[in-house]
Amino acid sequence: MKNNRVKKRDGFSSKFGVIAAAAGSAIGLGNIWRFPYVLGNNGGAAFLIIYLIAIVGIGIPVMLSEFSIGRMTQRNAFGAFKQLKPKSAWYLVGIMGILAAFLIMSFYSTVAGWTMEYLYQAITHQFQGQDTVSLDLHFKEFIASGTMPVIWQMIFILLTSLIVVMGIKNGIEKSTKILMPMLFVIIIILVIRSITLTGAGQGLRFLFTPDFSKITPMVILEAIGQAFFSLSIGMGVLITYGSYIQKDDNLIKSAVFISLSDTLIALLSGIAIFPAVFAFGIEPNSGPGLVFITLPNLFNQMPAGYIFSIFFFILLLIAALTSSISLLEVVVAFVTEQFHWKRKPVAFVLSFVFIITGLLSTLSLGSWSHIKVFGLNFFDLFDWTSANLLLPLGGLLIVIFTGWVLNRKALQKEILNGEEKRQWLFNVFMFSVKYISPVILFIMFLFGLGLFS
Ligand code: PHE
After folding, report:
1. Are 326 and 241 in contact (CB under 8 A)?
2. Residue 288: DSSP 8-state
3. For residues 237 and 331, is the Cβ–Cβ distance under 8 A?
4. How far is the CA of 202 from the centre of ligand 1 (A)?
5. Against a cut of 0.85, is the pTM above it?
6. How far apart are CA 324 and CA 153, in angstroms?
């Protein structure tokens, strides 16, 4: 490749580093906060089945496509399409991804702010003695209160940009490798406590006994949207990260490893939450507050709950950071590579823009709650449209590009690392990106736009 900019790109020090970072992007609030609340809103087990099918059938192929495009071109999402199809409009996929990054960061940083507040409340013993009614009330009062949610959100965004400024390799790698396994362990502990509560059975049935009559096009769309959101696909995060993956790394193994870890964490968090939801008499369709009302209850019922609650919220915050870093990185990589600006000023200027857009989400739960677009406040609007429209649309375009536009030989070389074996895996992948994923995503997209009903 003749381009000398490539050499200067920030890389990862170890082989596992970039895979760890991509896993860190995938694992975050999407698994522990969004997955349970969306599943609860969509009736439980039936949603779970569609979600799992979407991960394997669409999610992994899209992830593999993004990794290949990124590694092939060594570019950010926008630059990658520009390089592969210069005189075409495909770069718009990259632009859409940047738009998605702003929308997602807006509400993501709101929820990350709640996580910081709950960490503070955990440390200062504020959960003790509270029951479901008072926890529910306090959550609602807090998110509507304005000042503190905004301050936490700003701190979170500044922390994110600080890590992005330090560069990819110093920032993300270490935290993911050590702290994600710790998060896994603490969720297992929560699972054990939750399933041994009296009345836990009802929650497990909600999660695992499907009522197929509950499957509607909207449930399918939300399950696909959640799969995209949780895997960080459909907006170029993994194109950007893919560009840092080393040439001899196995892309198939990496995509499968990341998707499985992400799904495992989501499943476990479901098993930790729903038995407790039913045992404590919380409505499973309580919306975005579900986890924040349920978990303090659970900590109150645990030996050493005080310590666990502090650890849990610290780890959740870090998981949120390794995801928000990837959102900011998409935009930073775009600006620094396309306009040749320096990383530091770009990251700081962007964090101010993110703070402004973030305010829309946070304040829409309080003093701006009267402002509605399509009947939704900004928080719900950004959450819904990014996960259920923008990411699946991005994914649709990415699989069409991979299946129908990209040179098949070059793609095969990228995915199989130039080797002859595992040809059948590549054929399965091609069949999915050419036919299965585009057709399903196209139909679901029409439902999402309300063109079908
Ligand atoms: N996947 C992240 C999570 O589960 C959220 C995210 C979505 C990050 C899209 C980047 C891009 O928390």
Report:
1. yes
2. G
3. no
4. 30
5. yes
6. 12
